[in-house]
Predict the 3D structure of the following.
Amino acid sequence: MNTEETLIARLAEALGEAPARELAGEMERAGQTAAVLALLGELREVSAKAEAGAVETLPELQRRGGLSDVVAWLDLGVALAESSGAAALKYWKDSPLVLGLLEPAMRGSVLSLALELAEDDPNVALEFFRRTPELLTLLPASDLRAWAEACAELAKVEYVLGIEFVRQVPAVAQALPLELVRPWIRFGMKLVTQNSLGKTDYVGTLEFFRTSPAILGDIAGPVRAGVIDVGSVVADRSPQLAIDFLAEAPALLRRLPSDDWQRRVMRYAPLVAERDAEAAVQYLRRCPEICALLSPTLPSPHSAELRAGLEGEGQGGGKFEEWFKGGMEVLEFSAEGGRA
């Protein structure tokens, strides 16, 4: 019996003679028969159930146009099955649709990247693979590996957080450029706390991963890095205050008179945060009022006394710097005074 007939016999056990011959014939024409037989053999050694799942999925893979990549597809399935039978079964179920959503030219590289991830963790590999079609609508294919590496790195440090990050990757990619991802992760990691029983509590970080992309997406691109920097510094001192700050940041920044004011305010915010976390939050809460007073084109309902103290020579930006410098001088001697 030649290799094609052997493959037909193997497939016919689950699919019947006619479908098995059609599939085997297509694989033979593509020169895949020997490799497919070998990989099915490996799957059988790992788990007969895993092999059956692969064979039963082949018609759907063919229908989705993915049979040309069947060797790489099986190779990834073997790697998943060796580590997790449950991950392999999920993979057989989802992969035809995932591959069908990808451009044919991208399927091989996506399967290869997922195989690399599977060497460290099958669940990270599977979750990332499932989200790849959506990711490729948001970022260039050349960035895919860097995002995968960020997922793998975090999963090695904190598995629970790594898996959640992978699930949120499309939302994160929509809100943040690649260069801000690791600072954003570091911010989130600082929200991990200890509960009353002394056990690690991931709730704050998990919620941060789920909600912060939408919050940051509501902030102008040029100042998102500043918001992450300030939040991260505040989180060193008070995770809860950092969460409160992030939730307030979009509304506070929208109240500033212009994009230029947003950049100016955020440029100084990390300097305050390094001195005192609470003062940094108070500074940002106060700035919309101060900047409105310094913007002559905007009406202000604030007191004439406060306006008089800010206006005059050195109006606008210069006066803001004077106000900031004065606050920092007070903060150096008294945290309470600086906050006030």
